[in-house]
């Protein structure tokens, strides 16, 4: 990027004349937000670019899409039989047709995101209807009926998750809508969790491991959280890879990374929160002694540093929201605490201060903390730090 001061010096040195300087400024202004002239410190962070809404017309078209598909849904439900697979197929096809104009030609961000979600929901409904016709599903879903499905569980999971992933991939190749990255990550995580549960159940059936006693269920459920934790790290690693592939955040892959960070944050935070606070996963009770509060504070600091390093508030925002909501829940349900200020109250105060402070000066804080903390070789691979 060349700022205005550099252009002024170029005019003074005779490299450019005044007319050429004006023409360059006009060209930069017409190029949109991806090209900007001016002091670097005055430009927005690459993570601050409006990725979800393209403007007032985008919102206007989004309202039209909601009305269009709501009307189509009610009309088709009145005309088609209740169990017809044609309903979901028509909605999926309709969202594709509308996307050819709204997404393919006009590149409206919010409208395109909504259409991609409509398409994904229609495809998932279509797959569920297909599974219902191909497999003998129980009328009531409970623990015993699910156990009866164990032989068909993996094929059902592969059809639902695999079909959704395949459909999302085809839609993405056509329209390049970033939110589909989140759909794929969620479907893959669900399939991985199902596979792990089936392996554990088969080991119990074969006698490889003993069935847990009632007092061991909490430990079993706690161990099961390792599945979303591992999936969260995988999704996070893919998002970071995409970020490093596009340090300036100029391509659709960076927008995909944004959604992957949104998905990875709760997958990472919830298991780590339980490990740090000693929460009972069955009852939800927390024993927030000083050690738990210290661990929680260290977790927050770790997430803050990682978010600053990769320049992603999309990772930090759901993390702080989770900590804050759980902390508020604990405070409401611990009115009988007579030890003074609960430790989580201090956590909430810290989170509130972090949100306000970072919202006001994200790039400055990033420059002050990350630049002296990390070696130059690593900084050169991370998103650039604004001067």
From TrEMBL:
Keyword terms, alphabetized: Membrane, Transmembrane, Transmembrane helix
Keyword NADP: no
Ranges that cross the membrane: 59-79, 85-102, 114-133, 153-172, 179-201, 221-244, 256-277, 289-308, 315-332, 344-362
tRNA-binding as UniProt keyword: no
Protein name in UniProt: DUF4401 domain-containing protein
Species: Hoeflea alexandrii
């Amino acid at each position: 990027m060349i700022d205005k001061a550099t252009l002024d010096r170029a005019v003074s040195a005779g490299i450019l004349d005044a007319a050429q300087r004006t023409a360059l400024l006009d060209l930069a202004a017409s190029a949109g937000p991806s090209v900007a002239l001016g002091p670097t410190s005055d430009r927005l962070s690459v993570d601050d670019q409006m990725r979800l809404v393209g403007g007032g017309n985008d919102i206007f078209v989004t309202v039209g899409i909601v009305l269009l598909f709501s009307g189509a849904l009610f009309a088709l439900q009145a005309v088609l039989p209740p169990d017809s697979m044609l309903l979901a197929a028509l909605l999926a096809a309709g969202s594709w047709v509308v996307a050819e104009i709204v997404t393919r030609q006009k590149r409206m961000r919010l409208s395109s995101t909504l259409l991609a979600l409509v398409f994904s929901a229609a495809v998932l409904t279509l797959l569920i209807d297909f599974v219902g016709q191909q497999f003998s599903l129980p009328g009531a879903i409970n623990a015993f009926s699910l156990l009866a499905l164990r032989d068909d569980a993996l094929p059902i999971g592969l059809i639902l998750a695999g079909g959704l992933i395949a459909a999302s991939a085809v839609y993405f190749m056509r329209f390049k809508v970033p939110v589909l990255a989140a759909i794929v990550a969620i479907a893959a995580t669900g399939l991985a969790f199902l596979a792990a549960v089936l392996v554990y159940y088969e080991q119990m059936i074969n006698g490889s491991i003993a069935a847990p006693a009632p007092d061991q269920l909490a430990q079993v459920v706690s161990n099961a959280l390792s599945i979303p934790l591992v999936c969260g790290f995988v999704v996070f690693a893919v998002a970071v890879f995409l970020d490093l592939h596009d340090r300036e955040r100029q391509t659709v892959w960076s927008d995909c990374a944004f959604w992957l960070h949104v998905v990875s944050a709760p997958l990472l935070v919830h298991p780590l929160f339980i490990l740090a606070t000693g929460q009972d996963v069955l009852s939800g009770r927390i024993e927030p002694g000083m050690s738990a509060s210290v661990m929680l504070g260290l977790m927050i600091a770790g997430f803050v540093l990682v978010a600053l390093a990769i320049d992603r508030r999309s990772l930090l925002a759901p993390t702080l929201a989770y900590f804050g909501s759980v902390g508020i829940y604990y405070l409401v349900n611990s009115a009988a605490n007579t030890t003074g200020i609960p430790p989580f109250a201090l956590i909430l105060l810290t989170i509130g201060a972090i949100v306000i402070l970072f919202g006001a000066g994200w790039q400055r804080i990033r420059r002050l903390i990350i630049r002296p903390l990390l070696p130059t070789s690593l900084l050169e691979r991370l998103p650039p730090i604004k001067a």
